[in-house]
Known about the structure:
The protein is mostly helical. The protein has helices spanning 3-16, 43-51, 56-69, 71-83, 88-101, 109-118, 133-136, 151-166, 181-185, 202-216, 226-234, 236-257, 266-275, 278-294, 306-313, 315-319; strands at 27-28, 127-128, 131-132, 170-171, 174-175, 260-261. The chain has one domain (24-126, 186-319). The strands form three sheets. It has a two-stranded parallel sheet.
Amino acid sequence: MTSRARLVIGVCLGFLGAGFQPALAAKLVPAGNRNAEQPPVPGVSAKRTKSARTTFEAKYGKVYQLLKNDSGLISKIRTVAAQYQIEPVHIVGAIVGEHTYNVDAYDRLQTYYVKAVSYMKSDFAFQHNGETVGQFVKRPEFAECGKEEGSYDVWTCRENVWEEAFRGKKVDGKSWPNDRFGAVFFQPFYAGQTFGIGQLNPLTALKMTDTVHAVSHFRRLDHDDAQEVYRTIMDPDKSLAYVAATLKTSISAYRRIADFDISKNPGITATLYNLGNPEARAARLAAENRLRRAKGQISKLPEENYYGWLVNEKLDELTALFPDS
């Protein structure tokens, strides 16, 4: 079975609901944190927050008030969550985590729309040292990725090739940065750049474009049109769908690969939203648990990081944003 086939099966089962696969029911990850205390926050996040003369608690309070005071935004989140068949608190958890630890929230939702429009006149491309990503992925190292179908598998394959063949290496006389694919080719700006209310990485948006096209019927994104990608991830009316698709993909991956149902633990989905690569992480957890069971040990549950820990810690407040759910 190809990776694409496995992905389609997993996503379809996830969207159809657990009721269609009672014999294959995954182990439910209980609500709450596995760690009694919050895991360490990365130094770069602490440094960024300190330099802005604020605190994590203040940043959390700001984004929470944005959500609490904007019934229109809450309604949008509720609608998108229903379309992707996830609980709305998962989307809120991702938004809260990003604006608490990565960037400061704008005071009004309207500011995100204004920012999105600003990219209409910007002139930039996804490239590194004059080589566009479109040119880059035509290199022979990426030939195998041409066998994949769908944006998620194609871009995941390309990301893996980058990690294995280019990252931190010298290829054909050219040295490549020891950094993530998304950071090298998909961040044409520098400090202070924003990625919208969901703080989406353009590479993540490109991965999810087929799913969002299928569910929300938005036009597919193209890596050769960087402006459109940025306008999309800056526009709340569109970016929320990409946030939901990303979260749904993580839920499906953990059910399919690691045999865990994480749909009732927003701290875990927020952790995966923060870290990325849910399939690889689910595979590592599944492998670890196979070894544990072989030794007669109990399986290890997925654990939250500092980002997801906050979401679970604040879960009562976050779920209160949706009193009718």
